[in-house]
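Worked example 2:
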Amino acid sequence: MSAPPDSAAPHGTGPGPPARPTGLPPPAERGATVIRDKVVARIAAQAARTSQSRRAAIPPDRGGSTAPSASAAIRTGSVRLHLDLDLPYPTDIPHVCERIQHDVAERVTQLTGLRVREVTLVIRRLVTARADRGRVR
């Protein structure tokens, strides 16, 4: 059974937008949130590290692997990312790179609200699973 439309509902529980707290200007007048390139680059580097460990785990005995690095360029609500990272050898490089690009773009969009236009990957080096044995003659 529903109440007649002209009955008074308790404050804040009826249909329609919730009451605005007193003292705050409307959202349009409060300003904008600005996310700097450096912050987006850090988010992208962390997302690349996470994706790299899931998609292409580098063997732990190969301590020479370094963490991914990133740079970002934000223009008019969208971002271009550039990532440098290591991959294990052997691996399906095109497939792994595509998955990392997708994961990073998705995570950056999720955390910043920016549209990712492009994710460029540079593979610094391929890390082998076995120790170097020197030159074979």
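The first helix runs from residue 27 to 30. Helices lie at 27-30, 37-55, 93-112.
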